[in-house]
Structures are given as C-alpha cells and as structure tokens.
C-alpha cells in the first residue's frame, strides 16, 4: 500500500500545486478551498502511509491556507 501511495504522490502534488497557483494568480475562493482541502488530505494520508516529513509540510500549508480562508 505504501508503494502504491508513493506512486500517486507526483499527481497529488501536481494537483495541489495547480490549485495553489490558481489561488495566488486569481484570488479565487474556490481555488483556495480546493488547495486547503488537498493539503488537509495530504497531511492526513501522508502520516497514515509513513511519510511524516510530507505530512508535516502539508499540515503547515493547510494551516497557512486556513488563515487565508478566515
């Protein structure tokens, strides 16, 4: 399972990067919400599959994005 998760990471990161870039470029609230959701999911799943550094970085991003939502 860990290897399958790792194989999906490049696509997960691409989608998160795109949502984040969309928000930065446009200020679009939907893009911000999507980036926040993706970071939240990555923080949780990264920890579950044993990718602690990834999980910590995703959690930091999630918390930063949350401040933009509030």
Q: Structural class, judged by helices and strands? A: mainly alpha
- Major sheet characteristics: none
- Along the chain, the helix and strand elements come as HHH
Low confidence ranges: none
DSSP, total strands: 0
Compute the separation of the termini in Å. 36 Å
Q: Mean of the pLDDT scores? A: 97
Written account of the structure:
- This protein is mostly helical and 70 residues long.
- It is 90% helix and 0% strand.
- The protein is built from 3 helices and no strands.
- The chain has helices at 2-26, 29-48, 52-69.
- It is globular, with a radius of gyration of 12 Å.
- The mean pLDDT is 97.
Question: Top keywords for this entry?
Answer:
single chain; 3 helices
Give the gist of this structure.
With 70 residues, this protein is an all-alpha fold. It contains 3 helices and no strands.
Record the SSE blueprint.
Blueprint (H helix, E strand, L loop, with lengths): L1 H25 L2 H20 L3 H18 L1
Helix pairs in contact: 1-2, 2-3
């Amino acid at each position: 399972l860990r290897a399958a998760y790792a194989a999906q990471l490049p696509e997960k990161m691409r989608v998160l990067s795109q949502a984040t870039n969309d928000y930065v470029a446009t200020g679009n609230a939907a893009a911000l919400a999507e980036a926040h959701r993706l970071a939240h999911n990555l923080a949780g799943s990264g920890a579950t599959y044993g990718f602690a550094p990834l999980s910590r970085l995703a959690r930091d991003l999630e918390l930063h994005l949350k401040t933009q939502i509030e």
